[in-house]
Backbone:
């Protein structure tokens, strides 16, 4: 029964697909005939659930042909009523079975309760703790209040996972005169940061938590590990770092090094633009903008036209300019650029 229903639906589906593709009236009539047989086919709840034909038939309710769409909706509605009727019928049958009395079971339970009633009454004795509470011995015992759970302050008992190292009270030396000289110069510059931050309370508090001696040691160590000794070819690199970090007009770089905005291991990789002060960076930006403006102004003036046709894309939106590339008595050379495909040519 289920197999026959699926085969009949496949006939309906194929005919409906043919109508959608070819649009022939003969295919539509064939589809409607198959749907009439499908409507008369005897179905029940179990067959519809196992075959899932109802879900597939719903797709035909959105068919472009009005007759097929309405017929499919009619079949779906009929099948819905069949499912509802069978569901209500099954519920009524289940309720009638559950409402049947069971005297035999009830009588046995009552007999058992009566049989074991004396044993249950013998066990109804007061708890030992309750009996002792009423005895004279319990009156002599002092009453101990229940212990309250101690509340520990988690914020105080919990230790930080990575505690900050203690601040150094003095500079750590390496017994290398050259390296110690650089450490002293860097630490002296970093110690001035607290006096240069101004009146911002947040920045002042943040700077005071930093350790200038430890940062100076870390910076010098990073330079030494990257470049080696400060003699020979590396001397200019060291002097560039020292000049920027001790420059009286560059407090921004010192502050960024102390606060860790520039970590010690990144100091050897910094460029002069990175180490420049904020004011100097603004001046450099203005210089670059002015140079760019002058370079654009000194170039040839570019005009737009549709007088030239691009040989690559065929469009006429072009930009052009003219220059005197030959002798004065020769005509000027025209340089054309297509605005659409960026193709360039000259004549």
Residues:
């Amino acid at each position: 029964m289920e197999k026959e229903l699926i085969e009949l639906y496949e006939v309906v589906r194929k005919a409906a697909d043919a109508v959608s593709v070819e649009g022939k009236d003969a295919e539509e009539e064939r589809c409607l005939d198959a749907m009439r047989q499908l409507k008369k086919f005897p179905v029940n709840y179990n067959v519809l659930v196992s075959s899932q034909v109802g879900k597939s038939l719903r797709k035909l309710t959105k068919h472009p042909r009005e007759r097929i769409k309405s017929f499919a909706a009619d079949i779906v509605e009929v099948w819905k009523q069949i499912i509802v009727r069978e569901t209500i019928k099954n519920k009524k049958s289940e309720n009638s079975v559950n409402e049947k009395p069971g005297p035999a079971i009830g009588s046995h339970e009552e007999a058992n309760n009566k049989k074991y009633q004396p044993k249950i009454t013998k066990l109804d004795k007061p708890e030992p703790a309750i009996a002792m509470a009423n005895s004279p011995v319990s009156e002599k015992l002092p009453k101990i209040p229940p212990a309250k759970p101690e509340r520990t302050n988690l914020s105080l008992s919990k230790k930080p996972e990575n505690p900050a190292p203690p601040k150094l009270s003095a500079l750590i030396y390496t017994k290398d005169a050259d390296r110690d000289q650089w450490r002293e110069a860097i630490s002296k510059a970093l110690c001035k940061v607290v006096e240069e931050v101004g009146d911002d309370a947040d920045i002042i508090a943040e700077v005071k938590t930093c350790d200038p001696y430890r940062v100076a040691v870390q910076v010098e160590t990073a330079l030494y590990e990257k470049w080696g000794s400060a003699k020979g070819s590396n001397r200019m690199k060291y002097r560039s770092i020292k000049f920027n970090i001790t420059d009286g007009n560059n407090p921004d770089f010192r502050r960024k090094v102390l606060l860790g905005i520039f970590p010690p291991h990144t100091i050897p990789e910094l460029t002069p633009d990175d180490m420049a002060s904020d004011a100097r960076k603004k001046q450099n930006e203005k210089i670059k903008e002015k140079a760019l403006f002058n370079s654009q102004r000194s170039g040839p003036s570019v005009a737009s036209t549709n007088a030239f046709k691009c040989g690559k894309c065929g469009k006429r939106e072009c930009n052009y300019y003219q220059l005197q590339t030959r002798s004065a008595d020769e005509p000027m050379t025209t340089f054309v650029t297509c605005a659409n495909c960026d193709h360039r040519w000259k004549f």
